[in-house]
Design brief:
With 126 residues, the protein is of the alpha+beta class. 28% of the residues lie in helices and 23% in strands. This is YCII-related domain-containing protein. It comes from Georgenia deserti.
């Protein structure tokens, strides 16, 4: 399933050159890597929407942690797709990226409860 993609393997295999500093990729001038965590309503999302769930604040806490660590570029809901949000993350290296992805998949209570699904996506920034 794509949300549990082999992110590390993709980075190592350079399947996502957008995230690599070499090959004219899309790493920042400082060599930082950037990617997106796309959250969509999961199988346990209530009829009233993900924001009505008591589990949703755990995603806000995850974003707060990214911000405190200097990794959050931007994040918020996508108004044209209810229950969907996007978080742009920057990290110093592939190991940090792997940790952020692992945390998003296994530590965010909104994801582990099924309220949200998370997909890791490359992000081309300019």
């Amino acid at each position: 399933m794509p949300r549990r993609a082999d992110f590390r393997q993709a980075l190592v295999a350079r399947e996502w050159p957008l995230l690599s500093a070499g090959d004219g990729g899309e790493a920042g001038p400082d060599g930082e890597l950037r990617f997106v965590l796309e959250h969509t309503a999961g199988p346990a999302a209530p009829a009233g929407g993900v924001f009505t769930s008591p589990t949703f604040p755990s995603t806000s806490n995850s974003l707060r942690c990214l911000r405190e660590r200097g990794m959050l570029v931007a994040g918020g809901p996508l108004p044209d797709r209810p229950g969907t949000g996007m978080t742009v993350v920057r990290v110093a290296d592939p190991l940090a990226a792997e940790q952020v992805v692992s945390d998003a998949q296994h530590e965010d209570g909104s994801v582990t409860s099924g309220l949200l699904d998370v997909t890791v996506r490359p992000w081309r920034w300019r």
